[in-house]
Amino acid sequence: MRYPLELPLRPSRQALVMIAAIHTIAAIAFLRSSLSALALYPVLFVLAVSLFAGLRVEWRKTGRVLTLENDGTLRDGCEVATLAPETGCTDFGWAVWLQWRRDEAEGVGSRCRGSIMLLPDNLPRGHWRGLRIWLRQKIRAAPEGAQVRENPSGRS
């Protein structure tokens, strides 16, 4: 793999379906419960707000570009600062959880930490492997000892 590697992100159909399915199942469970209508409406409203918030987070990945650098750092296309991955980065095999912190010198006055969950269909074909290789090999070289935890469940 050659780095830097640009990862243009897109919403994951799998994530969108799972978010909708979980909220639908929860709504059905509440509808079938013995809650009164007075108590049920606020619960369904909160579920609807949660559904739209979850879908919005996934849709906001559209057009975002992450750049994996050879030195183990990360660049987000919508930010100018270098992002250093943190120890919370995890490769589950079926998903990747990235956490980062902004270099202190570059990100004055803006968010210092961030995170994102990526599924294979968030990335163009062939980029998933590059991301996983970067997590296992390059991130270990990142500043301040950031490391990745690999597949804590033991499944691939």
Explain what you see.
The chain crosses the membrane at residues 12-31, 37-55. InterPro entries: YgfX. Keywords: Membrane, Transmembrane, Transmembrane helix. This is Toxin CptA. It holds the Pfam family Cpta_toxin. By secondary structure, the chain is α+β, with helices and mostly antiparallel strands. It has two domains: 5-9 and 65-150, no CATH class; 13-59. 35% of the residues lie in helices and 21% in strands. The chain is built from three helices and eight strands. It has helices spanning 13-31, 37-59, 127-138, and strands at 5-8, 65-68, 74-76, 82-85, 90-91, 96-102, 113-118, 149-150. Strands 1, 2, 3, 4, 5, 6, 7 and 8 form an eight-stranded mixed sheet that branches. Strand 3 (74-76) and strand 4 form a beta hairpin. It is elongated, with a radius of gyration of 19 Å. The relative contact order is 0.19. The mean pLDDT is 84.
What is the overall number of helices?
Answer: 3
Which class do the helix and strand fractions yield? alpha+beta
Low-confidence stretches: none
How many structural domains are formed by the residues? Answer: 2
Strand residues, percent: 15-25%
Shape: elongated
The biggest beta sheet reads: 8 strands, mixed
H/E series = EHHEEEEEEHE
Radius of gyration: 19 Å
Can you count the beta strands? 8
Distance between the termini: 21 Å
Q: How much helix is in the residues?
A: 25-40%
Average pLDDT works out at 84
